[in-house]
Specification:
It is built from no helices and 14 strands. With about 180 residues, the protein is mostly beta strands.
Length: about 180
């Protein structure tokens, strides 16, 4: 049973991506996880960031092919906020944000968000996911609906790809659990 659906427009980074639909589920007796479902036409790679016992941690990469989901965090979600970076593997675009964490091209688990470049990692902008303190959360990535008469995606003018509803801190706040 779906408890609520939230539709958010995310910053469009480098490619004409559309909407990210956040859907929280409370199912019986479903396993609680954080999942990213790919409803786009291209495969995507997903990196996850969150506050762990040892501090901030980033991990990657999970691949979600078209019409498939990737479970990026297994078990009950014990924090309200998680952070994601999603890259289109074919088109080269990304769903990104302004919460910076460390990544690398190969599979990784990185502790800490400070001095990424000095430690030999890339500094990557993640976007915040508010799970509303639910123990299970699914995000659906969709292709854009383009209205050429309106000049942009979903009838809205194309704008600065960094504009959006994401928090603009450079590092995740350590007070949120």
């Amino acid at each position: 049973m779906a408890l609520g659906n939230t539709l958010l427009k995310l910053p469009i980074g480098l490619a004409p991506f559309g909407l990210l639909v956040l859907v929280g589920f409370a199912a019986t007796p479903a396993k609680a996880d954080l999942r990213v479902c790919n409803e786009t036409t291209n495969s995507v790679s997903v990196a996850l960031g969150y506050r762990a016992e040892r501090g901030w941690q980033s991990e990657g990469w999970w691949v979600a092919n078209p019409d498939q989901c990737a479970t990026v965090y297994q078990g009950d979600l014990d924090a309200r906020f998680y952070y994601l970076f999603v890259a289109d593997d074919i088109g080269g675009g990304a769903w990104d944000g302004s919460v910076f964490m460390c990544t690398r091209d190969e599979t990784f688990t990185i502790f800490g968000v400070e001095d990424c470049l000095a430690r030999g990692y890339e500094r990557t902008g993640f976007f915040e996911v508010d799970t509303q303190n639910r123990s299970d959360w699914t995000l659906q990535l969709t292709d854009p609906v383009i209205d050429p008469d309106a000049g942009g995606v979903d009838g809205e003018p194309m704008g600065d790809p960094t504009e959006g509803d994401l928090e603009t801190t450079e590092e995740p706040e350590s007070t949120d659990n």
